[in-house]
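Subject: Predicted fold for Phosphotransferase, 216 residues

User T.R. writes:
Posting the sequence so we have a shared reference for the thread.
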Amino acid sequence: MSIEVSALKSDSFGRIALMRGERGLFVRRDLAHVPLWLRLPAWWLARREARGLQAVTGLEAVPQLLGWDGRRLDRSYMDGAAMYQRPPRGDLAYFREARRLLQALHRRGVAHNDLAKEANWLVLADGRPGIIDFQLAVRGDPRSRWMRLLAREDLRHLLKHKRTYCPEALTPVERRVLKRHSWVREAWFATGKPVYRFVTRRLLKWEDNEGQGPKP
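User M.O. replies:
I've generated the structure tokens; pasting them so everyone works from the same file.
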């Protein structure tokens, strides 16, 4: 039997809560209260997250999939705070470890695809980086051109956070990576992002502030 400890987030795509069960604390995404017209995309996103987590089973600093039954997704709990809540200012070790974590992810054939959001980067209790929220993760052959392109975009997002919190540690190569914009980014800003903003702000009436927490 599981009991809810606290609600973590609730939006049109499901309710996320911290739970306690026989195995201790874990996190549950529950689609039970998703509006009827959003159930299909909510289910699709949750299934995508489950498959992404399956691909990184055993990898440290990412959630482990505990269960997915088509309505509830359970994953392991990670003790930490979002990057915007506990900024790693001047912490070069954090960003070095974050890059190693990304490389491990990409070797598994997984591109996270949503790392521009600080809410998806954790600063764990011991100061190490963690990555959560695999709803938009893409799986594929890590040697393919498409996956290498997505991997570079993941890296660019990490380097943008490094530029914010540890700018003096950016290397010349990293600065060049930041200046090199892929066609994926350009296409997103030209087409995808306006649609995303219209759906989330006009239709769903919520705004994630680019994953940096609520606006004051």
